[in-house]
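Lab meeting, item 3. Inverse folding demo.
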């Protein structure tokens, strides 16, 4: 008996780990769950006023830091900016393009990140869409002046990266995904950088990227990669605030997939982001963890052990114990406009769970005098809805497509141009 007990003690975790993960894609199999109420303090007291919410907001943010993304450090280093290339003849002469090297320096260590910006030629300060990219700045344009990143990159034949290095082969291949031309035509700037320059996306023991700027003792609540990417977006925001061409009161932070998780966490942690856009961010992003539909907390922690705080793995196959769920991440963005987008076939990211997160953030938006998500039912495919919370489920699968960008520009028009 005892030996069976011992055997199962040692081998059960191995078994769970090595078994093929079978995602649930059957709505009928979604377990019953109870979502934590964003409008009740941990001590059980109800939240009735905007002032109460401010305190509850901090409480919820602390929980996400501790239990999910890990605590990011306060930035007390030195930042330097150097324009490494620029032209005022981009996008058919309509835009200025610049690439800027931003150096983050602290305790004798330095991390360089490269920000690519397209800004409309205009006498006015332009609102900007800021997001991390997956394959390097050079994938946004054929222009040879744009640098090919020398940071570690995932291998991808289509985008020309092999042996963890980017190459010329990827140049211009992601141009349409970013909607640069449409942005410029509509008066918006685009700012982007390669996410691996902030933190290379592999399980490296946190000794490179921006983690290396802090020689800290790590514990189970220390920041993971998603938090590092989000933190980097705030460092870019520091820089955008210094630019005369940019309206820093209108910066939308956006991201796709793992970078959508980072965009949401950036928006939740830094209220300077006036608008937040989650494109197919899924588990650990906009999707409710308790639904266990598609990717689950356990699966994400095992496949990407470096993304979150170590503590998050406590909730693997244990979602009901989470003191928060992802609707509260959306609530942290209130009253700011937030857009959540799903892909119909991107079941791994749980489109319905992403919609429900928005819907269940409504009580907080409403407490703050807003509407939040303007519908109660998930809209039909390709039928965007745009309240304070916007949502669409696009036909097709996982990706950030011109269709998605088009909706985000419409959403920004609605919130920023009608006033
Ligand atoms: C994987 C991962 C997702 C993530 C996605 C991406 O599919 O499981 O959580 O969003 O990669 O970043 O493309």
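The presenter then showed the designed sequence:
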């Amino acid at each position: 008996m005892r030996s069976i007990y011992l055997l199962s003690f040692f081998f059960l975790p191995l078994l769970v780990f090595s078994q093929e993960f079978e995602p649930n894609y059957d709505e009928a199999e979604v377990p019953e769950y109870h979502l934590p109420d964003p409008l009740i303090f941990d001590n059980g007291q109800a939240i009735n006023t905007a002032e109460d919410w401010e305190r509850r907001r901090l409480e919820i943010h602390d929980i996400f830091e501790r239990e999910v993304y890990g605590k990011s450090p306060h930035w007390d280093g030195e930042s330097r900016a150097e324009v490494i290339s620029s032209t005022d003849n981009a996008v058919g002469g309509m835009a200025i393009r610049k690439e800027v090297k931003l150096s983050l320096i602290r305790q004798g260590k330095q991390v360089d990140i490269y920000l690519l910006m397209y800004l409309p030629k205009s006498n006015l300060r332009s609102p900007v869409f800021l997001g991390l990219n997956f394959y390097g700045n050079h994938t946004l344009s054929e222009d040879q002046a744009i640098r090919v990143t020398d940071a570690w990159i995932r291998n991808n034949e289509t985008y020309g990266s092999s042996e963890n290095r980017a190459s010329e082969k990827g140049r211009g291949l992601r141009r349409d995904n970013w909607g640069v031309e449409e942005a410029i035509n509509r008066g918006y700037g685009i700012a982007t950088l390669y996410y691996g320059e902030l933190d290379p996306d592999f399980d490296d023991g946190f000794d490179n990227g921006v983690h290396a700027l802090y020689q800290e003792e790590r514990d189970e609540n220390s920041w993971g990669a998603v938090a590092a990417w989000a933190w980097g977006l705030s460092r870019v925001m520091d820089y955008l605030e210094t630019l005369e061409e940019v309206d820093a009161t209108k910066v939308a932070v956006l991201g796709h997939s793992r970078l959508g998780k980072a965009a949401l966490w950036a928006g939740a942690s830094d209220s300077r982001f006036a608008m937040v856009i989650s494109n197919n961010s899924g588990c650990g992003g906009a999707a409710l963890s308790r639904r266990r539909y598609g990717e689950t907390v356990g699966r994400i922690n095992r496949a990407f052990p470096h993304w979150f705080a170590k503590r998050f793995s406590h909730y693997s196959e244990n979602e009901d114990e989470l003191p928060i769920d992802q609707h509260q991440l959306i609530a942290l963005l209130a009253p700011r406009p937030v857009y959540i987008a799903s892909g119909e076939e991107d079941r791994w990211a749980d489109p319905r769970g992403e919609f429900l997160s928005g819907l269940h953030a409504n009580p907080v938006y409403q407490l703050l005098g807003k509407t939040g998500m303007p519908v109660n039912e998930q809209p039909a495919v390709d039928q965007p809805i745009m309240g304070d919370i916007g949502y669409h489920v696009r036909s097709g699968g996982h990706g950030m497509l011109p269709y998605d960008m088009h909706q985000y520009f419409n959403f920004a028009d609605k919130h920023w141009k009608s006033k």
